[in-house]
Structure formats: structure tokens, C-alpha cells
Amino acid sequence: MCLICTCMHFLCCLLCFGGTVHLVCRSQERAELAKGEIVTETGNPNIFLHIVDISDPKEIWKFAEKFKNEHKLNVLINNAGCMVNNRELTEDGLEKNFATNTLGTYVLTTALLPLLEKETDARVITVSSGGMLVQKLNISDLQSENGTFDGTMVYAQNKRQQVVLTEQWAKAHRNIHFSAMHPGWADTPAVRSAMPDFHQRMKDTLRTAAQGADTVVWLAVSPEATKLPSGLFFQDRQPVPTHLPLASTRSPPEDEEKLMEVLEGFSQKFKSTSPGT
User: Fold this and answer.
1) Active-site annotation holder among 10, 61, 67, 155
2) Please, where are the H alpha helices in the chain?
3) Do 177 and 229 touch, CB atoms closer than 8 A?
4) pTM, to two decimals
5) pLDDT tens readout for residues 130-172
6) Is 106 among the residues known to form the active site?
7) Mean pLDDT of the region 233-239
8) Which end of the chain has fewer CB atoms < 10 Å from its terminal CB, N or C?
């Protein structure tokens, strides 16, 4: 089994299943350190590093085109993300949360779909968040240009977008099993840095990183997971609703289709300017 994973917390569990893992990471230093620790802990040396900034769609295209020519792929786990609390733009003029959480997830997944389509039990798992439950898909302001910028709500909107992507991909690619999931609130460096007040209040009740990773690993390797329909949203190994009762968060199908069209437009624009594509 060959997996691409954009987060370190899942690697120990996945390597224990004897898989080959490709870790896509932004920081060379942190990635090398994690690799050494994980190989020591699991005894499985089959972990390979790829340094890619997921907020840069040109870098993603360059990585994906090279990867497709050299490897097979059974499982893709999308978990690279950020919660930037002030509006920042990337070198390409993209709002950083949108570029990383939504467009980056879209480009990496769609670029690797031809490789996944070749396998008989291909899976894509996207780590979303229960925070998306407070958001209705908003296609009129994907890059948060209007109104007061609230990083937490922008993140929640991105996570709603990821759930919509998962549902749309499941309809379009029937021989790949797609799922999104909420890991629960876990005590991770990302939570500590992005939500320090929340972490301080809730630190005694937060899940461990291993507990947060459990459902992701189950979705990646368990035969039971693919007995359930593609396109669902999971928490604690169970499919759960994507909307709260009485919440006005459902969007019309044309908005969801428009999201896919806009992201595809961005994706093709940056593919055409990416070296090696």
C-alpha cells in the first residue's frame, strides 16, 4: 500500500500496517526530524519526504506531475492546513487560508486522481473540522475580501468547502472512496498556536494526537470503511450529519457546482505556469 499524507500525526499508525508513506511537508527540518523519530518508533523505513508548500498551487502541480511518473498511489490523506488570523496574501495574490485549505486540497487531489483511478481500492480522506457546521457555503467571497476578517470563521468556511469537495468528487469518481472527517479537538501544535485562548480553556479535555488520528487511519485502511457510501463525513468512525438541525447552512446545488468551476479555473491557471507541467 502506498499513501500520501500531509500530516505527521498519522504516520506511525499507517507505517505499522506495513505501508509505504510519502509525507508532503512544507518544512524540510521538521520533516527530517519527524521521519527519524517515526522510523525509530515503527521500524519501518518506508517513509519518503517531499517538500511542498500546499499554499502554492504551482509547487503542487510540479510535485504531482513528478510523483505520477515515479510511483503508485492507493490512499491520499489531505490534512495540510492553516488558520491565519490576519488576512495575508501568498506570492500569487491568494488569501493564505483559502490557498492552503481549499485550493491546495483541490489541486493536490485532482492532480493525483489519474493515479488513484488505476487502483482497485483507492481512497481519499480529507481532514475537515466540526467548525464547518456553523458555516454555509459562500461562493461570493472565497478569498475573504469583504467585511471584517475573522480567521476562525474563514477556517470554518474553508472546512465547509472541503466537505462540499468531498461530496462532489464522490459523485464524479465512483471507483474511488472519498470521505471527510472531524478528528475532534486534539492537543496539537496547530491548535495551540492558532487558538491559544481555546487551548488554554480546554487543554484538560482535548484529545491526544493519536486519538484524533484514529478515524483517519481507520478510513485509510479498514475494509469496513469502504462498505459505507462514498462522500460521507465521519467522526469517531461513524458517519455524521453535515448540517445541524434547524441550521440554515444548506447550499443550492448550483453554488456547489460553481465552487468546483472556480477552483478548476484556478487550478488550470497555475498548472499552465508551473515548471515541468
Assistant:
1) 155
2) 11-16, 28-42, 57-70, 96-97, 104-116, 151-172, 189-194, 196-202, 209-221, 253-272
3) no
4) 0.90
5) 999 999 999 999 999 999 999 999 999 999 999 999 999 999 9
6) no
7) 97
8) C
